[in-house]
Amino acid sequence: MTESNEILTQLTGSEYKYGFYTDIETDTAPKGLNEDIIRLISHKKGEPDFMLAWRLKAYRHFLTMQEPSWAHISHPPVNFQDIIYYAAPKKKSAPKNLDEVDPDLITTFNKLGIPLEEQKMLTGVAVDAVMDSVSVKTTFKEELNKLGIIFCSMSEAIREHPELIKKYLGSVVPYTDNFYASLNSAVFTDGSFCYIPKNTRCPIELSTYFRINAANTGQFERTLIVAEEGSYVSYLEGCTAPMRDENQLHAAVVELIAHRNAEIKYSTIQNWWPGDKSGKGGIYNFVTKRGICLDENSKISWTQVETGSAITWKYPSVILRGDNSTGEFYSVAVTNNYQQADTGTKMIHLGKNTKSTIVSKGIAAAFSNNSYRGLVRVEKNAVNARNFSQCDSLLMGNRCGAHTYPYIEVKNKSAKVEHEASTSKIGEDQLFYCTQRGLNKEKAVSMIVNGFCREVMSKLPMEFAVEAQKLLAISLEGSVG
Amino acid sequence: MLIIKNLKASVNGKEILKGIDLEIGAGEVHGIMGPNGSGKSTLASVLSGKPGYEVSGEATYKGKNLLELPPEERAAEGLFLAFQYPVEIPGVSIINFLKTCINEIRQYRKTGPIPPKEFLSLIREKQELLQLDTNFINRPVNEGFSGGEKKRNEIFQMAVLEPALSILDETDSGLDIDALKIVSNGVNAMRTGNRSFLVITHYQRLLQYIVPDFIHVLSNGKIVKSGRKELALELEEKGYDWVREGRRQETGNRGK
Amino acid sequence: MIDITMNNELKNKFLTIFPNLLNSFPAEPNYVKESRLKAIDALAAVPFPSSKDESWKYSLIQPLLVNTYSLPGNNFPSVKTSPPPVIHPGHFPDGALINGYYCIDGIGAGTENNFMLKSLSVAAGKNDGMLTSSFSVNGNADHSFFSHLNTAFWQDGIYIEIPCGKKTTKPVEINIISQGERILSQPRIFINSAKNSHAEIHIYFYGSDEGNSFTNLVQNIHLDENAFLNLVLFRSKDDNDILLNSTEVQQETGSHFISHIITLNGKWTRNVINVSLLGKESRAELFGLYTPSGDQFTDNRTRIEHRAPNASSNEFYKGVMDGKSTAIFNGKIFVGRDAQKTNAFQSNKNLLLSDRAVVFSKPELQIYADDVKCTHGSATGSLDEDALFYLRSRGMKYETAKKILVQAFAGDIVAGVGSESLKNEILSLIAGKFNS
User: Fold this and answer.
1) Sites in chain B below the pLDDT cut of 50
2) CATH of region B2-250, choose from 3.30.2350.10, 3.40.50.300, 3.10.290.10, 3.30.1300.10
3) Which of residues 91 through 150 in chain B touch C, CB cutoff 8 A?
4) What radius of gyration do chain A's Cα atoms show?
5) Where does residue C307 rank: exposed (0-12), middle (13-18), buried (19+ CB within 10 A)?
6) pLDDT given at position A118
7) A123 has pLDDT over 80
8) What is the rounded distance in angstroms from the CA atom of residue C161 to the CA atom of residue C174?
9) Residues of chain A positioned with their CB less than 8 A from the CB of C366
10) Contact at CB, A423 and C368, closer than 8 angstroms
C-alpha cells in the first residue's frame, strides 16, 4: 500500500506539458449567446443562407432543452452567457503556403509536436490544425485532391461543397439530438470535413489537431466524414489546451457516414488541460460522436485515448444499419487528481448479421471518478447480431472511483450479447515480479498499465501509438494502486 | 447397411464434399483417412444430419433415405457419431442425459421406457468396459473434461446406446497411448455380429488398434483411393501427397 | 371500501384518506404512528413512478394503471379468522397472510421452540429498537414510492425471530395469499436472525383465482453476528396479480445470507432486494430465476452494498423468456471506501426462446475502494445450436432436447435451496412449463 502511494505521488506530480499559451492576436466576438452572435458567426464565415437558417433552428431548439443530469459527473452550472463563441487568430490574408502562416502559430504547433512542414515530409500525415475555432492550415491538400479526396476545414466545405454539407450535416447527429449537440449546431465555428470518393483508399492518415488558446473561449468544432462505397479512411484527432484557472467548454460534434463496403477508422488522443492538482480549471469536454454504417459490409471503428479534460462526457457510437456491418469501440480513459470521466459507447444493431466489439479500459487515480457507460441494443429485425463487450477498470489509490454502467437491450432471440467487466488494482505480486527483474517502480507501473491497455493501444495507427503510450505514462506519472 | 452415392455438401456456397461413393456392409469396419481439410469431418457431420450444409446425392441407410431424416431419427435408427469436439453441456449429468436418450430412442422404436434396474446394470457394465470411475456418470456432460475424458465419454455413450453404425470422428486425437487402448478396447468389444463402423482419422495409429476391413483416402472432397488395411501403412510411409492429386485407384477388392 | 386507481391521482387519494386511517389504529404504539407520518411526508415528496425514472426505465408501468383496487376498510388492522387455502396438501404453513391480514387459524402448531412467529402488529406492540429502525423510511429502496406507501399504510404482517444460537430443524414456511378481485394489500414481514442462529425460510406467493389483485410487500431482514439465513421467495402460480416485493437486508459481522428469488409465473412481478454488508467478513449470495412467458413481466433489481472490509458477495441471476414476455435484470454492486478486500461477483444470463420476447440487462459496478476483486458478466442469447444438435444426434426429439437444456440452464440456480422437496417442486414446475 505505502509503496503504491509513493509511486502515486511521484506520478501524479508530473506537469501538464501542453499548458503554454501563445500570444497571438485574436479576432473575438463579445461574450454571450443570442441570435445575433449566431448571425455574426455565420456572416464572418461567409456562409450560405441555408446554414444560418439551420443554425437558428438549432438555437431555438436548444432554448427548449435542459442540461443532461444522468451522467456520473458533477460540476457547477455552466454559464452559457459567459463564453466567447467566436475567437479566430487574426491574420493579414489567407496563407497560400506554409511560409505565409503566422510564425508564432508555427511555433505553437512545434511545441505541440506537430511541426507542419516536418510532419508533412517525414510522416506523410495530412494535418488540419484548428486553433481556437478556426482551421489554420491544411497540409497535403493538393495530393489528396488528385484522388478526389476532399479534406478541408468545415468552413471551406460549407462554402465550396454546399451540396455535400446539405446532404450529410446533421444526418447522423440531428440538431435536436441532445443539449450539447444542439448548442454545437447553433454556434460551431469550424472543424474538419473529409470526403472519400467511391473505391478510393485514402493513402495517408488524415489528422486534425485541436487547440483551445484564447481565454474564456468555448470551442465548438464540427467534424464530418463521408466514406463512399468501397472507400477507406483512417482519421486521427488530437487535442490540447493551455493551463487556465477557469473551466472552458468544449462541445464538439463528429459525424461519420460509411456507405457500402466502406471503412472509417477514427482515432482520438484527447489531452485537453485537465485542471490542476486541486481540481481548479480544466476543459469540460461534452462531445457527441456518432457514426452510421449506412449500407452492407461497412465498418466504423472508434479508438480513443482519453487522458485530459476536467470532465469528459462522450459516447462515440455506431448505428449498424447495413447488413453485415461492423462497429468497434476501443477506449482507454485515464482520470487523475479531480478529473471526472463518464464515457463509453452505443452500438445500435438494426441490420442483419451486424457485429460490434467494445473494449474499454478505465484507470482511475487520486480523487478522480471514471465511469464506463455503454448501450448495446439489438432491435427486432437484427437477426444474428453479435456483441462482445469487455470493460476493465484499474483503481490506483483509495479516494477514486471506477464504475461500470452497461445497458443491454435484446429484442431478437438469435442475438448473442456478452458483457464482461472487472475491477481490480495492480497486484503487489505483479509489481514485485517486475521490480525483482530490475525495473523501478514507476517503470513497472507504467508497464503494467500499458499491458492493461494493450488491446486498445494496438488499434491506434502506428505513428500515434507511441505518442499515446508516452501520454499514458505522463498522465499517470505517480498513479498506481 | 449404408450406401452413399455421389454425396455432395457445401457450406455457404463452398463445396466441401464433391461426390462421395461409399458402401458399408453389415459388420464391416471402414477407415477413412485424409489430410486436414479434405472433408473427413464434414462427411461425419452430413451423415449424422448436422444443420447448416446444403447436401445433394444419396445416402441409403438400412433401406431408408438417410438424408431425409432429422438427426434424432438417424440416431434412433442406430447411427452414432463420436464427435471430434464434444460440446460441453453444463448442468446436465451424464446419467440423466443417457437415460433420456435411451428412452427417447425406445419411444421411437415403440419399446417403452427402460426398466431402472436394467438401465443401471447396463451403465455399470459399460463403465467397467471403459474403466470409468463410479462418480463419472454424475458429472455434467463434458464440462471441465480433459480432451481424453471427452473422447472416452463419447465411446462410453456409444457402448451404452449400442448403435448399428458408429462414426468415429478423429477419436484418437488428443489421446495418450493408454487412453487409446481403452477406447479401442471399447470399440473392439462392440465388433460383433452386424455392427458397422466408419473410423475417421488423420493418422494410421488408431487403425493399428481398430483394424479396419477397408480403407479409403479422402482428398479434396473425394475418395481418391480405396483398399485393404495395408493401405494405411503405405500412406503412413509415403504421405498424403502420394494420393492427393491422383485419381481414384483401386488396390484391393471392394467390400459388399 | 375505498377504490383507488394506480396513477398520479393515487398519491393524492392516499394523502387525503390518511388521517382517517391513522385513527383506525388506536392501539398502535407511538413509534409506529410516527413512522407512518414520516412515510406520508416522504410519499408526498416523490412522484408516481414513470419510465423517466432510471429505476423504472424499462419497466412496464401500464399494467399497474389499468385496474381500480379496493382498499381494506374501517376494521383495519384486523386478523383473518378463516384458514388459508391448502397449498401443500398434508401440511400447514407456519404463518400465512391473506390480503395482508394475519391468519390465526390453519397454520402450523408452532411446536418448535427454535423460532418464534407472530403477527407483526402484535410484535410491534412491544417496542424494541430493532423494530423501530425497520419502520424507518426506506431511503435506499429504489422503488421508494411503493415502500413509502407500505410504511404509511401497512395492515399487518409477520414477525419471525430465530433466537441466539438456535437452528430450525425444517424450513419455516410462509404463505402470502390474495383472495378476491382487485384487492390492494400491503403486508410487511420482519425477520430477525439473532447471533449464531441458523434458518431456512420459504415464502410462497399465491395469487387470487379471481385475479387482478395487487400486493405491495415490504420485508426487513436483520442478520446479527454469525447468523445464517437461507430465504426462498417463490412465485409459481399462473395468476393475473401484480406483485411488488421489496426486501431490505442488513448483515452484521460474519453473517451469511442466501436468497433465492424465483418467479416462474404471474402476470407482473417486481422483486427488489437491497443487501447492506455492514459487518466485516459477512457474506451474501443472491440467486434469481425468472421464466416469463405469454405476456408476463418480471423485473428483478438487486443492490449489494459493501460497507465493511473482507466481505464477499456472489450474485447469479438467470432468465428464460418465451412468448412475448419482457424481463429486466438490474444489479448493482456498490463498494464503499472502507470495504477493502471485497470480493464481489455478479452474473446475469438470459435465454430468449421467442422472437417476440424482450430482455433488458443492466449489471452495474460502482466502486470506491482499490483493493477489491469485482467482476460481473452478462450474456444473452438463444439455445446453443451445437448442444441442441448433440442431444438430437443422440436420439432426443427437438422438444425434449430444448426442455433438457432449459432445465439444465435453470437448474444451478435452485441447487442451493436447502429443502430437497422444494428444489424438486421447482424443477418439475420448470420442466412442466417448458414441456411444449
Assistant:
1) 246-256
2) 3.40.50.300
3) 91-92, 97, 100-102, 104-105, 108, 140
4) 22
5) buried
6) 39
7) no
8) 13
9) 401, 403-404
10) no
